[in-house]
């Protein structure tokens, strides 16, 4: 496996100056990001299908062991505050259980039975999107979970940093970022981990865009859970509708804090009209605005 190779270039790394070591690390991070470029078409295809399934009520399921599992958890936990993705539509299957997020659990990644059980116990089905992440692409836990999910009709996405890895054969949407050998041999928290995070950032963000949770580059579905975010909501309503601050504040109040509803209210809709337009457009603000404009004519 390329991610496990030892590079003679770095065999005396510990004798280098700190700046030279950091430069090597930095260059490795840049190459990790560059390695994602060729996977963009695969990411786009995976996101397109995922949005269709999730609109039917499906869940996003992150599967992984060790570093890969933790990176998946990081990606998923950012979706509720950023895009107001429902917490009950997220599932995390981590080898060794939830405790493995904070502390390594030895040998957990080798358990095929645990991977299968995680899928079965969560009743994964055809509307669900299962994302398996493994730098080696050979993790038994993750591959077993993907295979079981596929057998149940779920969409399966496999992310690996090694070409020809089994995980890429075990899923319907293989995504490869061939990051090669690490500066510190086998330390896939470095280049491989960076590429995985970039892929998950791109994948989940595009899914949310396709689901109408972004409008004009703005997080119109975010949860305004503090003063900073409430202020951001007001600014976004003003930006979208070109209204003044007082109108934006009042619209948000009438909307019960829902930013999309507030935008329509600021455009002249009643709360009932705004909610109706959003319901007809499945929450897509662009479509709801067009719908409301038609009713005004």
Any descriptors?
alpha/beta, globular, N-acetylmuramic acid-6-phosphate etherase, Helicase, Ruva Protein, domain 3, carbohydrate metabolism, 297 residues, 13 helices, five-stranded parallel beta sheet, Rossmann fold, Etherase_MurQ
Mean pLDDT: 93
- The CATH topology of the largest domain comes to Rossmann fold
Number of strand elements:
5
Rg: 22 Å
User: How many discrete domains?
Assistant: 2
Helix and strand element order: HHEHHEHEHEHEHHHHHH
Classify the secondary structure makeup into a structural class: alpha/beta
Strand order of the largest sheet: 2-1-3-4-5
Spatial gap, N to C terminus: 63 Å
* CATH level-four homologous superfamily name of the largest domain: Glucose-6-phosphate isomerase like protein, domain 1
Largest sheet: 5 strands, parallel
Give the overall shape.
globular
GO molecular function, one term: carbon-oxygen lyase activity
InterPro entries: Etherase_MurQ, MURQ/GCKR, SIS_dom, SIS_dom_sf
Keywords: Carbohydrate metabolism, Lyase
Organism: Microvirga vignae
How would you characterize this protein structure?
With 297 residues, this protein is α/β, with parallel strands linked by helices. It folds into 2 domains: 2-210, 3-Layer(aba) Sandwich (Rossmann fold); 227-296, Helicase, Ruva Protein, domain 3 (Orthogonal Bundle), CATH 1.10.8.1080. Helices cover 51% and strands 9% of the residues. The chain is built from 13 helices and 5 strands. It has a 5-stranded parallel beta sheet with strand order 2-1-3-4-5, sandwiched between helices. It is globular, with a radius of gyration of 22 Å.
